[in-house]
Amino acid sequence: MEIGQTAATAVRLSGLRKSYPGGAAPAVDGLDLTIRRGEMVALLGRNGAGKSTTVAMMLGLLEPDEGRVELFGCPAAQAVRAGQVSAMMQEGGLVSRVTVAELIRFVRRAFPRPLPTAEILRAAGLEGLARKRVDRLSGGQAQRVRFAMALAGDPQLLVLDEPTAALDVEARRELWAALRRYAARGRTIVFSTHYLEEADANADRVVVIDRGRLVADGTSAELKQAAAGRIIGFADPGMPVSQLAMLPGVLEAETRGGRVRLRTVDADATLAALGPVRGLEVTGAGLEDAFVALTGAGR
Ligand SMILES: Nc1ncnc2c1ncn2[C@@H]1O[C@H](COP(=O)(O)OP(=O)(O)OP(=O)(O)O)[C@@H](O)[C@H]1O
Question: Which residue ranges does the record assign to the ABC transporter domain (predicted)?
């Protein structure tokens, strides 16, 4: 049997801890996380939350101080050696002078069961660029070549650390389309990001990390619901913010541009206590509201 081939669990992190020398607080502080095969999971957190450190431990590039990393039931390094796991890092030079197709053919040779070159090019949206030299590609195209290199060996698990950092909107859209095509093959994808909209649009599951700890885990709809409740907006009746904040269910109150915005866990109770208002709007809170509520970002 191939290593861990039957394991339903792709990633299991248990009690992970990591401190850097001189760091005031641990970068990762007791993280437990299980990811099933076929999931597309976003690790979401603000700068310095511990995402990259977690990803590096997941890939066996960094040794945890405490805890364990298992990929498909094996130690990380073993799964990586067996070609089950691949990573796309943020940067990294691409050799020059060769064409995209030549580079992919070269990379394929490193793996026991690589995908066919044509399939790799198709999956990464590079069909039209096969004959182009890699040192003449745009940033977005070069990033898709990195993605193609990462999937050449047909890994079961693909880990991407901020895959769309520094890409423009169009390049981002194309990379996400390529990633979704790969996920549709039943592969597991874990990506870190601090773009809320990317987590919202692409992940089956969003794991929010803050100060090295897991602070939320669910679908983005669940996180919005659990952390942020609903948003009530209406024309400012001139009531002091402190009084608005005291209304039943209200978690946050602010006035801006002649309107009041309340975040509430119980819209009915808030509205009943508020009485009639003008220009009322009630909406579900966005992932950004959930994120602020969960991490205290912006406080
Ligand atoms: N090589 C290092 N040496 C010392 N401290 C580090 C090192 N790498 C990260 N840190 C610290 O560890 C903490 C977590 O950093 P990490 O890079 O894992 O966060 P992140 O969530 O990936 O952040 P970002 O979104 O900015 O990439 C931060 O406080 C950071 O300053």
Answer: 11-236
Q: What's the pTM value of the predicted model, to 2 decimals? A: 0.78
Q: Is residue 49 within 6 Å of ligand 1 at its C-beta? A: yes
In short, whether 26's Cβ falls inside 6 Å of ligand 1 is no
pLDDT tens-digit readout, 80-100: 888 899 988 666 666 778 999
- How far away, in angstroms, is 252 Cα from ligand 1 center? 30
Residue 150 contacts by C-beta under 8 Å, 6 or more apart in sequence? 86, 87, 88, 158, 160
Q: Output the CA–CA distances (angstroms, integers) from residue 16 to 32, 92, 93, 174, in the order listed.
A: 7, 27, 31, 34
Residue that has been written with the tokens 């081939």 in this structure: 5
Axis crossing angle, helix 169-183 with helix 139-151, rounded to the nearest 10: 10
The three-state secondary structure class of 222 is helix
- Phi, psi dihedrals of residue 143, rounded to the nearest 5°: -70, -35
Asked if the interface predicted TM-score (ipTM) of this complex is over 0.90, the answer is yes
Find how far residue 45's CA is from the centre of its chain: 9
pLDDT score, position 4 = 44
CA of 124 to the centre of ligand 1 (A): 29
Alpha carbons 115 and 156: distance in angstroms, whole number: 12
- Phi and psi at residue 33, to the nearest 5°: -155, 130
Kindly give the distance from the C-alpha atom of residue 173 to the centroid of ligand 1, in angstroms, as a whole number.
27
